[in-house]
Amino acid sequence: MESLLHAIPLNGVYLPDFPWRCRYPREEFILENIKWKSEKKLETLPRPIAVCGPSGSGKSTLLKRLLAEYRDYVDFSTSHTTRKPRPNEIDGKDYHFVSREEMQKAIANGEFLEYAEFSGNIYGTSKNAVKQIQKNGKLCILDVEMLGVKNLKNTNLNPKFIFVKTPSLEVLEKRLRSRNTESEDSLQKRLARAKEELVYGETPGNFDLIVVNDDLEDAYRQLKEFLFPDIEALKKRMH
């Protein structure tokens, strides 16, 4: 009779799917089944969105607006960085501000999906930050550097990629100078990096969407139109 019962694999061992006659405690099967259902649930979520763009392109402004409008369906994966906070930046909201030693230890422990160093500071996306958003059933948005995009393409995260840019490098320089947060040396490094990012961002096949942020309203409309199917799918899933 036992051989005729439906069997379910558990760690390579087939168990009957009835509480009696089981060779292992039923609690173990229940926990394994819940884990399996949870993993299947995550598979049905929209693919994460990785947004890249030079500093000064306006990507942070666009993302903050998106999160304010769709906070019930979208969440932002807060990156870690070893740089010091700028005025009005909040730890845990804008970035997780950590020491270089803490960051290096976490990287060595395999806690990051991607990381990159720029201008003497390390930036990265932790696995836990993304996993928590997905467990909450929301669309995960990542703000990553160019190297981070390249690294994410080598993971199984399978995000969609969006590149945000200004109409020209001259416009970008003007925006960066208007911040008054950069030394001349730091600004020149950012502009040199921006040139590389623009070449990579405009290369066909590297990104699913390129947003030219000349007019904020139009740029935001492009972003929303691209994300509309995913957000609508989440609305139906939640209601």
From TrEMBL:
PANTHER family: GUANYLATE KINASE, GUANYLATE KINASE-RELATED
Guanylate kinase-like domain boundaries: 46-228
Gene3D superfamilies cross-referenced by the UniProt entry: P-loop containing nucleotide triphosphate hydrolases (3.40.50.300)
SMART domains noted in UniProt: GuKc (SM00072)
EC number(s) from the headed UniProt entry: 2.7.4.8
Family statement: Belongs to the guanylate kinase family.
Protein name, entry field: guanylate kinase
Signal peptide location: none
Organism whose genome encodes this protein: Caerostris darwini
A Pfam family this chain is assigned to: Guanylate_kin
Any one of the GO CC terms: cytosol
Key words of the record: ATP-binding, Kinase, Nucleotide-binding, Transferase
GO MF annotations in UniProt: ATP binding; GMP kinase activity
